[in-house]
Known about the structure:
By secondary structure, the chain is an alpha/beta fold. It is about 35% helix and about 25% strand. It has helices spanning about 40-50, 80, 90-95, 110-120, 135-150, 165-180, 195-200, 215-220; strands at about 1-15, 15-25, 30-35, 55-60, 70-75, 155-160, 185-190, 200-205, 210-215. The chain has a six-stranded mixed sheet, with helices on both faces. Strands 2-1-4 form a three-stranded antiparallel sheet, covered by helices on one side. α4 (about 110-120) crosses α5 (about 135-150). It is globular and about 45 Å long. About 35% of the residues are buried.
Amino acid sequence: MSLIEAKNLTLGYETGPVAEDLNFKVNEGDYLAIVGENGSGKTTLMKTILGLTRPLGGEIIFGDGLKRNEIGYLPQQTLVQRDFPASVSEIVLSGCQSRMGLRPFYTRNERDLAFENMRRMDIEDLANRSYRYLSGGQQQRVLLARALCATRKILLLDEPVAGLDPKVTAEMYDLIERLNKEEITIIMISHDIEAATRYASHILHFGDKVSFWTKEEYQGMSS
């Protein structure tokens, strides 16, 4: 079943479009890798899906009852965000805010969900540690656990392995693949085309025009 569909979508800002005429579907269980040059519109697409940026044309349609506040999002981190002075458990638990409405306090179920997602990311022993003193790989696991608290269906990941060493990068890709096998739909921006074609089921390539392929079609075009 289609979770997200783009129809004749134009991405951009007041200064003008950055990508035009996007048409693609992301079905339940897909693993979509978004690849292409810097500034081609990849992050703008994610922000548009999340409602942080309005499309200049066309539309994004959500299916299977999916709502924007039920999408888990792992953005690229700034240096200031990497130095955030909060505990791991506080950051992971903040992923439940989208489901709280006007309630000022977390429920027991939300605290249990946060702990479960820390366990899934193998960081439960870091719960009381300060986020700012973690390694880059540990911080990404924390943010992934946080994103999982917001969703049971779909994750949007913007360069989740940026700045990580090869060993930690491989571990992160394995984690994301495992989540996909647990029926979490993945949309991931990546500069690593080799990894994208290894793990993803579909490729959205931003270039002179935006092209949407299955992995097999993309590999055939590249060979």
